[in-house]
Structure formats: structure tokens, C-alpha cells
Amino acid sequence: MGRAGTGGTFRKWACRFCGEVYDEELGMPDEGIPPGTRWEEVPDDWFCPQCGAEKSGFELIE
Amino acid sequence: MTISKKLSNTIVDAKAFQKGDAVDEAFASLRRDSPFEVATPDGYDPFWVATRHAEIVEIERQPDVFHAGDRANTVRPAAEVLQTMAMTGGDPNWVHALVALDGDVHKAMRAILFPHVTPKALKTMREGLGDVSRQFVDQMLAKAPECDFATEIAFLYPLRVIMQLLRIPIEDEPFMLSVTQQLFSSEDPELNLTRSEVSAAQQRDVLMRINAEFEAYFDKVTLDRRANPDSSLCSLIANATYQGEYLSRKLLMGYYMIAATAGHDTTANTLSGGMWALAKDPALLPQLQRNPELIDAFIEESIRWTVPVKHFMRSAAVDTELAGRKVSKGDWIMLSFHSAARDEAVYEEPHAFRLDRPMNRQIAFGFGSHVCLGQHLARMEMKLFWEELLPRIKAVSLAGEPERTRSNFVCGPKHVPIRFELA
After folding, report:
1. For residue B37, is it left (φ>0), alpha (ψ between -120 and 50) or beta?
2. Which of B5, B24, B52, B355 gets the highest tally of CB atoms within 10 A of its CB?
């Protein structure tokens, strides 16, 4: 589990099609998502940078 | 302690994969007693066998540790690998396809087609592909009351889809199908080009001949698409660059090869597997008709149940450890997707076809950076097909015994005889 942020503990989400992990603590700077970005703040039209799955294809893992 | 000679030989035996039971029993035994151990089949270099879902995921999460292209990326006899290396100047793989690339070049090659095969991009193709699926459903229904679903529909529909996306003329589809079958089913006397039992040396000779024809065909395509670029996948490949230059011949041909073969064969196998399940279990059709939202689960279970790609090989790029075992740099490792799809630790009743699996985490299309680039296209093709077909039939059952391809690599149903009634 990630360290506590201002809004609580950071969570991780995994793409169920390829396993790519989105870690709120790290964000995805290469994809324009800064560290600390909550999953809810990730744009709805964002997609998995590894396989292209839509945001809805991710599930909470921790 | 290594895997027994008998089990070692079984897990590379194309005939055992064709029959099914012997391979399932061998892998069940390995998952129970030796889930990550070394196999020593006659005539092959020794290799580790990862049989469980967990270890395969762990390997695929570390592409920098477990390379896809340093050694042969499918399991082949040592003599055959040596001969390939002698003929390619030291490369154990014939072509530099995505499945045999690592690191930056792998990322760069995936990036060429990636934006065009995401679910978002595919939405724009939905209508056009829907027309193709309707056409093949119509063809199937016109054959009522019986057909061989594998040869008459499933082999042909995904082939038509990918050829349309590549913009390859319909009249060349039989050639592309024959290349695919020779590449993936050369041991099967019903599907290989010579339509006969052939030795490994003969298989190789035929493969080289058809590979030369394939390259000559795509040399013309490359020249044409560079002169007349369009929006087709072939044009994107032909005009792609890497480090400021057009793709090398090996990369170019590897890309065409994987698009024109793997781009339809695995979908065809999975569709046939789905139909096999549908025809075998009379409860499935009414369940899906009442609950069309279950079609996604049906597709995921078709992929898991069929497991069209039985394995890929990796090799350790550094000394490492896996499942408590020391793996040395250079060790060869089989990722048995077939076994992972039957892993009792992940799937209750793994041999059963069930729609109620919670979050079906099947990895039959791979996992991690090497996950199948066309997986979302494959799912969309299947969804369009089943959504069109299911409301239009009243009943379906097996009209004979289905048969699988004789192959230890890409292996799915090659005959699914069915009897059906129109709604």
C-alpha cells in the first residue's frame, strides 16, 4: 500500500487485459499524468499505454 | 531433479496436443509435482517449464530479465534451431516479429500499429466489420442444417477482416491462409502445403519455399504502399521508420508475417472453440440468448478454454530466481499458456466451460509488454459475430467429433461439425 497522501492512502489499479499497473502515488508522467493523481482524476478517455484498454478495463488491486 | 523423459516428450508432442487428454494429464501432473522444473525432451536443448499462471505472470512482468528473442521463441529441436542460426547468421528466429523482439525495438515496433488497434480506434471500424461478420453469419445460415464451422466459417471470417485492414485483395486470401497453415500447422498432414506426413527437414524446406513467396509478395506491397500510401495497416508498416530509416527487411517481413498470420489464426481457433462449447452444452445457447450481456464472458471463456497459442519461449538475460529456483543467464524457459489456462489455483473446474468465472483473468493472449497487439480487434470480431449469430439460431449441436490441429504451438479446432436450426 502506498504512503498516505493528503486525501488518504494511494491505491493501485491494474489493466485486466495486460496487467499494466496504474499507481496513484507515481502517476504516469510519460503519459502526462503527474505523481499523486487520483484514479478518479485520470481522464475518462485515457487508455492503457501498454495495450490500449479503456479506463473501465482497470480494476482496483490495492 | 528434472521432469521425467515421458512427460518431457509429451509436452512437446504435436500429436499429444491434437488428442488433448495426454497433454492435459501431463501438465496437471507437472503443476502438482514440478510446477517450475527442467524438461529434457529427446532432441531438444533442456528448458524450464513454467506451468502455473503465477510464474508466467511473474516472468511476463519482467521483460528485461526474461527475453523473447535471444533464443528460439518457440520450442524447436536443437538441430532445427542450429540450422536456422546457420542460415540467418546466428539468429535463432527466422524473422524479427514482435513476438521475438525485446527492449526499445520491441516498443518501437508495437507503437507502429498500436494507435490503430485500441478499443477507441476500433470503434470507428465497428460498422464496416459488422458488415463482414453479417456476411459470414449469412453464409453459415445458408448451409443449414449442417456445416463444418471451423473450415467453412471460422478459418475464413477473421482472415477476411485482417486482409481488409491490410488491404490485401480477396483473391489473395487463399495464399495467406496457406502461409498461415504451413507456418503454424506444418506437422498436420491435413493442413500443411504438401497435404502429407512430412519429416522435420521437409517441413523446413516447404516453409522456406513459402517464406520466399511470402517475402516476394510483400516486397511488391511495400513498393506499392510507399509509392501510394493509404490508411491500411500494410501502408503503416511499409512507411514506418525506426531510428530514421525504413524498417530493416527482417523487421518489415516479421511485421507483415505476424499481421497476416497471427492476425487471424488465433481468432479463428477461438471462434471454433466457442462454437464447440456452444454445440456441446445445450444450456449455453438459451442462456446467452436470454442474457446477451454474457457474450463478453463467453468470449473470455472461449479464449481461456481454447488457448490457441500453447506456449512461447523466453530466456534469462541475467542470473535470477523464480519459484525458489535459481535460473542461470541464458536458460531457456517455456511459458505454457495451455497449462496456465488449466491452473486449479486460479480456475475452479478448469476443464469446464463456464460463464460465471469471477473476473476471468485468462492470459491466453499473453500478459505484460508482449500481450497480443490485436487482442481488442479479436474480441471485437468475435463479439460482432456472436451478437449477429445467436439471435438467428434456435438450436445447435455437434454433428460429429471435433478435431484439433496437430501442433504444439498454435493449436485449436480444425473441424467442428455442427447441426443447427434457424430461429
Report:
1. beta
2. B52
